Amino acid sequence: MYLSKHKNGNYYIYFEDEFGRRKSITTKTKLKSEATKFLSEFKVYLKQRKESKTVSISIQHFITKFLIYSSHIHSENHTKSLRTTLIKLLEYSGNCNLNELNKQKVISFVEWRLSKVSNRAVKRDIANLSSAFNWSIEKNFLSSNLTKGIKKPKIVEKLPVYFTEAEYETLKRVIDNEDVRDIVEFGLLTGIRQNDLINLTWQQIDFKNSTLILDNRNSRTKSGKVHSLPLSISALQILSKREINKSGNLIFTYNGERFKQWFLCKRFREFVTKAGLSSQLSFHSLRHTFASWLIQKGVPLYVVSKLLTHSDLRTTQIYSHLKKENLSESVNLLTIDDKSNN
């Protein structure tokens, strides 16, 4: 390993990687004293990387392997989001080895993304990278999660978009396909996520105890935990009807075939448009509607949080505005007798 001055005036470090290939890296300085300091730090970095015994893999190869893994446990939309983040990381960093990344490079990537997209998108990027890096640690591609300690940008809180009861009745009237109507109705009655609905099987239904089990077998829950959720009479009626004509293991199918996430979203948007409702209403709005209606009917926020399988009550706080009248009712419970007139 040695320093050499390039014709552009900057000093470069020339070294051999673990496979004996000759490589170079710029010190980004024309001063020998600074280049020598960079060389010293680079030697320490290589030693630490060697001691960590991580397996070398190019970022491009890592992305391919991780997305294959993701496609088996995540929803189509989530895998698409992961792909977007990782392709942008590849664009920014180049196709170097994954274990050549460090925290400062990831911070620089985050800053670069902040200059191009919204805070919300960058917050999602950081979450996606954290997920990918955790998997990399399991596979021994990285020794630590490089997003640890990186602050997520603040985002403006948006109120959840949900259907009023009148809007939902209007939507139901225009859905002329029974398969779509059943999955929409069941989604509203249970509040479970779209990916869980699409992959829901008969083995996950306990008719005797009127419960539904999200067990990570067919689709991974967001928290990775197993959840047992109660089923209402209306939800059980949909299941009983579909059980009569079931032709496979999946509960919800379209003309006998598995629902594709993109297709279900597309058909749902078409029905929303046909009903003359707001374009802001999406399939995920059914989950918001489930929570919003429960809150409006007086169900405690903590209970709604459990039904939504939120791991943190703070996530459910976005619905708290729906019961502001309870605050007034609560403070009016306190009264002070005016004894001055006695």
From TrEMBL:
The record places domain Tyr recombinase at: 158-332
Where is the chain membrane-spanning? none
PROSITE patterns given for it? CB (PS51900), TYR_RECOMBINASE (PS51898)
UniProt keyword terms in alphabetical order: DNA recombination, DNA-binding
Under the heading InterPro entries, the entry gives: CB, DNA_brk_join_enz, Integrase-like_cat_sf, Integrase_catalytic, Integrase_recombinase_N, Tyrosine_recombinase_XerCD
Where the record annotates domain Core-binding (CB), the positions are 57-137
Give the UniProt record's GO annotations in the biological process aspect: DNA integration; DNA recombination
Supply one GO molecular-function term: DNA binding
Q: Which family does it belong to?
A: Belongs to the 'phage' integrase family.
Please state what the protein is called. Phage integrase
Provide the species name: hydrocarbon metagenome
